[in-house]
Amino acid sequence: MPDLSTLEPEPAVAAGIFGDRLDVVRQYAADLAQYGEELGLIGPLELPRLWTRHIVNSGLLAPLLVDGRVGDVGSGAGLPGLVLAAARPGATLVLIEPMERRTDWLRAEADRMGLTNVEVVRARAEEVELDGWLDQVTARAVSALSKLIPLTAPLVKTGGQLLLMKGARVDAEVDAARKVIAKNHLVDVEVLELGVGVVDPAETTRVFRATLG
User: Which residues pair with residue 208 across a beta bridge?
Assistant: First the structure.
């Protein structure tokens, strides 16, 4: 059993980020803390930073979502997919994950959270077959942009967006991916830093945003 005494207390900023959806997110946080390590979804050192590093970090992306079909590639534990589905009930989150035990978790957890705007697809990104194009695609901690863009761009409709969550080295990744960006017809490329003035400066969220031209 996990030592839940180490679970990070819910930070005050969560109320401002999730508003009236906070109770749904609390359910997710409790379930992930309870079962996440046992199911191999999170590491043993994540409980003391579960809210700040993972849940709030994911929730900062919510205002960028459209009320359409949004894919989460390599959804894993549901970060950011389940958090975004909770925060943005007007969007449909398509959670793409190749591992069966993780897709089982995603389906079961979406039910526990009472989410009706989640589709779970068991597949690798390069092999997935979807019913229509996506309006946006996100991914968190999957791979470098040079590898991630060719996996995600083909899933998005023309005029749709990539919203790829990255770390502090995102600018270097963008420079290294210039040819890949051009080859995949991405325009309006920018790096956003979300949460400035809201969360600790060390916990802001960087997002590579681009439109499929």
Answer: 164, 191
Upstream peptide bond of 11 is cis (omega within 30 degrees of 0): no
**Dist. CA 46–CA 7, nearest whole Å:** 8
If we measure between CA atoms, which residue out of 136, 148, 138 comes closest to residue 207?
138
Q: Specify the amino acid at residue 130.
A: L
Compute how many other C-beta atoms are within 10 angstroms of the C-beta atom of residue 117: 18
CA 140 to chain CA mean position, Å? 5
Task: Answer whether 71's CB lies under 8 Å from 96's CB.
Answer: yes
Residue 144 and residue 130: Cα distance in Å, rounded? Answer: 24
Write down the H helix ranges in 88-211: 100-113, 145-152, 170-176, 178-183
Q: Which residues pair with 209 in a beta bridge?
A: 163, 190
**Range 35-62 burial, b when 16+ CB lie within 10 A, else e:** bbbeeebbeeebbebbbbbbbbbbbbbb
Distance CA 210, CA 213 (A): 9
The pTM assigned to this predicted structure is 0.96
Each residue's pLDDT, cut to its tens digit, for the chain (213 residues) gives 677 888 899 999 999 999 999 999 999 999 999 999 999 999 888 999 999 999 999 999 999 999 999 999 999 999 999 999 999 999 999 999 999 999 999 999 999 999 999 999 999 999 999 989 999 999 997 789 999 999 999 999 999 999 999 998 999 999 999 999 999 999 999 999 999 999 999 899 999 999 999
